[in-house]
UniProtKB/TrEMBL annotation:
Molecular functions per Gene Ontology: magnesium ion binding; phosphatase activity
GO cellular component annotations of the record: cytosol
CDD domains: HAD_Pase
Name this protein carries in UniProt: Hydrolase
Coiled-coil ranges (or none): none
Organism: Paenibacillus pectinilyticus
Amino acid sequence: MNYRLIALDVDGTLLNDDHELTDPTIETIQEVHDQGCHIVLCTGRAPASTLPILEQLGLEGTMITHNGAVTVHADERGQSLVNEFAFDMKDIEPMLAYARREGIHFDVCTAFNMYIERISEYEKQMYKKFLISPKLVTSVSELGVRIVKFTLFAQSEVLDRVQQDWEEQKLYGDLRMIRSGELFIDVMSPEANKGNALKALAATLEIEPQEIVAIGNYYNDLEMMAFAGLGIAVENSPNDVKEAADAVTLSNNDNGVHEAIRKYFF
C-alpha cells in the first residue's frame, strides 16, 4: 500500500515524556515528507503551541488542533483558519459554575487565543511545558466570544469525580466531553474530533482513507485512528486504545513514530 498522509498526535506520541523531538524521528519524518507524503500534526494543543513543533520538523502545512475543533494552515505568510467547530459560552455556564465552586482550574479557547480566570505556579509550569501563554481575565463569561474548547486541568482522581458528576448530571448538554489526557478533560462541539477534521482535510487533498496512517496514544486519537487505513497506537497507550488500533509500535520514549514510519514506508 502506498500511503500518502501521516496523521500524528503530538504529546505522548510524537514527543517523548520530556516533550522533546528526537533526531531519528525528525530525520525519518523529513525523509518521508521529501518523498511526497503529507505530514499532519493532530493535537489537543492550540495552533500557537503546535507551530513550534512543525517548525522543528522543518515543515509547513496544515495542522489539526484543539482535538479537531480547529484546522489551520501555516506557511511563511503566517497562520490562516481553515475550519472550526465553535459553540457559545453560555453552553458551558453550568460547568463553569461547577469548576469555580470546586476550585478546579480551567481555560477556554477560541481558535487562536486561550483565556483563564486564575493561575497558580502549578498551572504556570503546565502552560510553560506546552508552550502556551494564556490571557488572564476577570471572567470568561463576559468575553462575548464563541469558543472551540473548554478544558479542565487537575489531578487524575479529581477529574475521575468530575466525569462521573457531569455524566450523571448531564452538565455538558449537547456538547462532547472527552478525557484528552490523564490530567485533562475537554468539552467541545459534538462535531469536533480528530477523525472528522482528518476526513475533511483528506477530502480537500483527494486522499482516500486507505492511503492514511494515523498514530496516537490516547482516547482522543481513536476517531482518527479508526478513519485511517492504518491506525497505530504507541506502546504507552492505555490497553483499550491499543486494542482498538490496527497495530502497535514502540513507546513515545523509544522513538515509536520513527519505528512505525520505517516499518510501513521504507
